[in-house]
Amino acid sequence: MKKIIIATMLVGASSIVAGEHGVYIGADIGNTSGDFKITLNGSSQTESDDGGSQTLKLGYYFNANNRAAVFYQNINADGADAHNFGVGYDYLIGNHDFKPFIGLMIGQGSYSLNDLPLDISGMTYGGQLGLNYTVYEGLSFEAGYRYFKSTMEDSISGPGGTANFEIESLANWFVGANYKF
């Protein structure tokens, strides 16, 4: 009788763990490139900054093909402190170990230059495409590309006029892992 009870409990526990829904945590690393525009006295110049990035996610699988998450991304920018955080939704296509996914993201970005009193901040919005590979029911690896448009901007005034700084877009290639509880 004890063996039957233990076997029933193990089957029940494994079905809970193997369920299609549940909380997950994820992390990825990658390369993020930001395009920004500097305008001084009516003259504009476009620049790029390219560096590594690290992203942490806490999310929920609603089923095998739908998930949502909150994310925090640290961006390694030259001479700056840059972050992006927000929420996202992904649709995973198919019912195989390899699943392409497409997602939408919206958040708040901040880019502070170390040598200027600027806080270039604003909304970010965009999407991502990638491929998710399930190693086993709770662990998956993924790689992909994210693209954000941005409303991040700030101005600084000085004797030479007013300079306006705008982050126009962020592009991010990434690889990472997710663990579902």
Description of the structure:
This protein has 181 residues and is mostly beta strands. 9% of the residues lie in helices and 74% in strands. The protein has one domain: Porin, CATH 2.40.160. It has one helix spanning 2-17, and strands spanning 22-40, 43-63, 66-75, 80-92, 98-113, 120-136, 139-150, 153-158, 161-180. An 8-stranded antiparallel beta barrel has the order 1-2-3-4-5-6-7-9. The two termini are 30 Å apart. The model is unreliable at 4-18 (pLDDT under 50).
CATH topology: Porin
Please give the CATH class. Answer: Mainly Beta
Q: Which regions contain 5 or more consecutive residues with pLDDT less than 50?
A: 4-18
Q: Under the CATH scheme, which architecture would be assigned?
A: Beta Barrel
- Total beta-strand segments: 9
